[in-house]
Amino acid sequence: MKILLVEDDEFIGESIKDYLELQDNRVDYYSSPSKALEEVYPSHYDIFLLDINMPEMNGYEFYDELKRYASDVPVIFITAYSDMDHVEKAFEIGAADYIKKPFELKELELRIKRLVFKKTNSVKITDDYEFDVKNLKLFYKGEEVELTPNEKYFLEILVKNIGQVVDMETLKDYIWEEKSVCDNTLRTQVKKLRAKLKENFIKNVRGSGYKIEKQQ
After folding, report:
1. Which domain holds residue 154?
2. Which phi and psi angles does 168 have, rounded to 5°?
3. 102 upstream amide cis, omega within 30 of 0
4. Which regions of the protein are recorded as binding DNA (predicted)?
5. What does the pLDDT profile of the chain (216 residues) look like in tens digits?
6. Angle, vertex CA 50, rays to CA 44 and CA 54, nearest 5
7. How many domains, the chain?
8. Domain containing residue 144: CATH number
């Protein structure tokens, strides 16, 4: 699961990040909402965890920006506020959940799982292939196809943007994160992945990137 965490208290933010990464999640943590807006692709995430009381912009304003690109990604607001006005405001703008500080990290983990489990896990790619977006598993006629971690991330972002072209830079940033890789590295990975497939459902859009067509 890929999580966007924005929390201006760095001690709390790093604690949440470390804990969730121990549960095999990928967590992008920012203490600055403006920096997050400059760098992230909102639709790449499974869930947002947002503090409300931040100095640059509050969590509500930040979520309004995210919703323009990823209205279907659930958000949990994290806050020290306990009054009903803030709780009501959070749910009015579309919060899936609201957790008050201080809280146990295990409780946050359980709330995240509850929300993500509600989402459809499996996406049908072709008549014979489907991809489990929660567990990052590809199945052919019900049998799991063995994939490397990077192949899983590649399919994950294409499936999340099914029917749309995902450009080369976005793919490289998503798969390798902080590492700098060239286009040929990505092309080599795609070639190896295609060799494992009985159907070539990965389409190369020349000069742009890759896509998976949406089933009719």
Report:
1. 122-212
2. -60, -45
3. yes
4. 121-214
5. 889 999 999 999 999 999 999 987 889 999 999 999 888 888 788 899 999 988 888 999 999 999 888 878 899 999 888 788 888 988 998 899 999 999 999 999 988 888 876 665 788 899 899 999 878 999 998 899 999 999 999 999 899 888 889 999 889 988 987 678 899 999 999 999 999 999 999 999 988 999 999 876
6. 130
7. 2
8. 1.10.10.10
